[in-house]
Prior knowledge:
Layout: H1 2-41, H2 50-57, H3 59-95, H4 103-136, H5 144-179, H6 187-200, H7 208-232, H8 239-262, H9 274-303
Amino acid sequence: MLYRTTAARSVLRALQSSNASVARSALSNNVFKAPLTSSARFPVRPTTTPNLALAIRKPVTTALVRHASTAHKEGEEDTDMMAGMKAEAKVIKDTFSLASVPKEALYLGMAGVIPYLATSLETVYLSWEIKTAAVAGDGLLFSGQSAELLLHLLEPVQVGYGAVILSFLGAVHWGLEWAGYGGKYGYRRYAAGIVAPAVAWPTLLLPVEYALISQFLAFTFLYYNDARAAAAGRAPAWYGMYRFVLTFIVGASIVASLIGREQISGTLTGEHTIKDKINALIFLQKKEKEEAEARKRAELEDAE
């Protein structure tokens, strides 16, 4: 009985194993056989995209087209940049144009700044001579003492000429008021002619550096006032730009003089201040008074 049962179980297991093998074989044939057969019948060919084919067939033509397009764009950018620069240059030229200034006023005005410019350049050169003499023992054309003496002689010329120019610029407004240019403004316009010399001439009593700085500020203030007058119609329209050019030259000259003097600030001999000059004047007057009294006493004694 036991033998039969065991034999039956063995038969059942054999049948199940055979069925599973058949199923796996059928599945393998359905899944893997068909692709293998189709691959064998239709071998895979390399495929290429249209763009790649075009690049392979005509690489030179594409490169030339691309280069021509890039060069065209760069040419347009260069043209636009040059046009912009020319336009900006034209704007600057028109802004600083002096074409509307009367020729007589232009020529005389430019001639008027020549002395100021010349004294400034001379100050810079003499300062260089003094510095060179202090370092090397002697200058190029002048000795250190000669250059310093010439510089001291030049100082009142530059400061005095600046005071004259400032006074003249103030007097222009008196002439405009007398002519009634743009209307009558009375004391408001006369004030500019009064303030300018009132500020200019006291600078002669200041040390040179302070005098130049004061005149620089005075020139700048007068330009601002003149530009406003031209914009408001109280002066000719061209007067604002005309004054700007002249003031720029004078201002640059003053700055150059100050820079040159700064280079030798520790080399020059001490300059007399206003206090020193006033004390010297008082001492001289006192001395002259004492001498006069001494002469009178001597005359009285001789008379007795």
